[in-house]
Write a structure and sequence with these properties.
mainly alpha, 76 residues, two-stranded parallel ribbon, 41% helix, 2 strands
């Protein structure tokens, strides 16, 4: 549903399965599949804030340090 409303993921570069695998992983490594978001940073921040209660250490800082997540403009 998020993808239909705000183009959450860039599905030409990654899948929802890739995102779920990363979010449910106990340890993140740089060898994991990269996640490319298709929405604006403001929208992404709102979504991450809402999801953070359901996942361990899901913060903007943790996302950046993992080096797995890229913005709509392909910035780490």
């Amino acid at each position: 549903m998020l993808n239909n409303q705000v183009e959450f993921l860039n599905e030409s570069k990654c899948s929802t399965e890739d995102l779920v695998t990363i979010l449910t992983s106990k340890a993140l490594t740089t060898k994991m599949h990269k996640v490319y978001f298709g929405c604006e940073t403001v929208q992404l921040r709102y979504i991450i804030d809402k999801l953070s209660a359901s996942f361990n250490n899901l913060t903007p800082t943790a996302l950046e340090k993992s080096e797995l997540f890229y913005t709509k403009t392909n910035r780490l």
